[in-house]
Amino acid sequence: MGADSINLKPVESARSLASTFSPIHEVFFVAIVCMGQFMTQTNVGVCLSPLDTVGDSFGIDDPGILSWFMAGYSLTVGTFILVSGRCGDLFGYRRMFIIGFCWIALWSLVAGVSVYSNYILFIFARVFQGIGGALLMPNALAILGATYPQGKRKNMIFAIFGAAAPNSALLGAVFGAIFSQLAWWPWAYWTQAIVALCCAAVGLLVIPSIHHDAKFEKSFLGLLKALDALGGVCGIGGLVLVNVAWNQAPIVGWSEPYVYVLLIVGILLLAAFFYVEFRVSENPLIPFHAFSPDVSFVLGCVACGWGSFGIWIYYFWRFEEKFRQLTPLLTSAQFVPVGPVGIMACVVTGWLMGRMRPALIMVLSMTAFTVGNVLIAIAPVHQTYWGLTFVCLLVTPWGMDMSFPAATLMLSNAVERKHQGVAASLVTTIVNYSISLSLGFAGTVEVHVNNGGYTPSDVLKGYRGALYLAVGLGGLGMFLSMIYAFKGHRTERQPVEAKNEEA
Asked: Domain named Major facilitator superfamily (MFS) profile: which ranges (predicted)?
């Protein structure tokens, strides 16, 4: 870690846990923990590639409603992560991790069954699937953070965990396309349910129980205080209402009064959340006192970068399928470079984290997000795939797989072992919530620049407008990361200058 890293003394992880694993046990342990990342991100790709097919089965072609198939899942992944991280701190990461697999299995089953009902049940199932992802992600990261001591080995394990993201989204898109084109789309979700149950069974065997020192009053009131229920209600409620307002506005228009009401109430709840966390709660969900101001730069960069990524991945697929007339399966085939490039990016990031200041890694990742969006935003409709589209797929994975491992590792090393779940939750909350919220921003831009979307050229104009917003978010992330890097550089130079003056 560089000099501009978080100004907190790193906390030792549980050395004994990692040292007790045999090589085979460790392989299975890392694999099943990475499956938490895999199952969470697969749910993005499995819905994205057959989006039109699923919409047609429900008789839906409204872009605003179709975007909810994606945004609803990311919304609950992002908002429930903080509470699930606290549950992991209190009740055990292993227990909550296993429950996460079982929860995803249940609602994947419902998502498939919704084909016999209507799109409302499907969106409802997608929203509840996200709670399973929220249980998996922070507790998976917390298991790794509490198991491995600091060092190159831990860096590489976190990089491997990050590498699961692009490949799982890719595989989800491929299997979603295969089932929708060659069989029946509900089987994509029913297969997920089977895989999730198998992962839960294997996890019970290979993941050790991590003991905690968390103590709370053994009563219902004591449990509510330990969980910071008031803070959780305000935080989750505020995030959900703000997100719903922004994602609903492109469908019904900002002229609808209830959209403003949802937005205002959501903002008030978020203000109440910060008041509760700082002034009221005995056990705040987010230990703000444990973080230095540098954390704000890191999370701000992550929010901008992953917000731009959420827009990029949604409109990339819409552009390929709507304007280049590609089938879901062929689009998935074109998306293949994201997998190997993502693995390469994670390995390189794991190597760089011990040799480069985290701020510089963040600058590189924000640059990759921005350039990737520029390339797809200006790509001509009839240009060959091997032009800007292929280059875009080579660039964007570096943004994902440099920012996520660096941010999670920094926060994991910055907090005590009992707060590993909260540290992991904070990054994954920002990542997933930014993806969902940015789709609402992009939808608003799209409907305001596409002249009603009555002609293909107007629809394309709306797509490009949304992608230009993604370019702006990526550029803002670059700006914040550069400020962070400059600040760290000055902090590093001050002791040297002081020594020179003394000499």
From this structure: 29-489
Nearest Cα to 173, choosing from 328, 402, 350?
328
Please, what sign has the CA dihedral across residues 454, 460, 463, 465? negative
Task: Using alpha carbons, list the distances in angstroms from residue 390 to 10, 384, 396, 425, 440.
Answer: 41, 9, 10, 33, 27
Tell me if 426 sits within 8 A of 299, measured CB to CB: yes
Query: What is the pLDDT, as a whole number, of residue 420?
Result: 58
The CATH topology of domain 20-208 is Growth Hormone; Chain: A; (1.20.1250)
pTM score, whole prediction: 0.80
Q: How far apart are CA 10 and CA 416, in angstroms?
A: 8
Q: Rg of the chain's alpha carbons, rounded to an integer?
A: 22
Q: How far apart are CA 436 and CA 70, in angstroms?
A: 8
CB within 8 Å of 142: residues ≥ 6 apart:
85, 88, 89, 93, 420, 421, 423, 424
**Residue 3 confidence (pLDDT):** 38
Dump pLDDT digits (tens) for 25-75. Answer: 888 898 999 899 889 888 888 888 888 889 889 988 777 788 888 888 888
In this structure, how many other beta carbons lie within 10 angstroms of the beta carbon of residue 202? 17
Q: How many CA atoms lie within 13 A of 145 on its CB side?
A: 32
Q: How far apart are CA 382 and CA 369, in angstroms?
A: 24
